[in-house]
Amino acid sequence: MIVRLQKYLAEAGVASRRKSEEFILSGRVSVNGEIVLKLGAKVDEERDVIEFDGERVVKNKKYVYVIFNKPEGCVSTVKDQFGRKTVLSYLKNIKERIYPVGRLDYDTSGLLILTNDGELTYTLTHPKHNVPKTYIAIVNKVPPKDAVFKFKSGIVIDGYKTAPADLKIIKKDEKGTVLKIIIHEGRNRQVRKMCAFIGCEVLRLKRVAVGNIKLDGLKKEEYRFLREDEIKYLKGL
Ligand code: URA
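A: This is the predicted complex of the input protein with uracil.
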């Protein structure tokens, strides 16, 4: 965020805003190595190096953890080279720069976690951490009998064997077959490719859980902040 220098100093606990202004005017504050003597200066909290009496002033970063029910028709990146709508356009009231943890396809809906906590992002996305992700998929036909076994034993997609995955048929009707699928990685279009391997085309795909964190009552396009117990759980994974 871009803020006035005196505001930054005050929020970092150097002194009150007024006192910080005095410090600036008396030449005790520098930004990126240059003493700032005017009061109008603004700083980029994430990039600029701010010093008071030669000592670095670091503001405690406020970590934000959000769970969002992504609709279809938007990308789960911060920017899109084709100018498509991004998930951030649904999260306008959040001041911190948050990023999606992993990705959902443009045409996949459901649970997406966003945060500015790089360490948690690492925990949740690294394959070695093995976090289960639960999907509900509507596919065009009933999977063959050996599909559950194939999911369990691993499927080779793009030259890589998937970790054991769960497949359960929830419902069959005229609109398609509803499957519950649990995978432990997050490779590109993994669920769609695994379903293609068993001869099924995914018509709709929604992520409903990451570990124990569930969408529950969260409606499409809505978000909420994660609770303390949820954050603690995710950090412990
Ligand atoms: N698997 C997919 O195929 N797509 C997603 O968006 C997530 C998992």
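Residues 104-105, 108, 189-192, 205 surround uracil (CB under 6 Å). Residues 155 and 206 are 21 Å apart (CA to CA).
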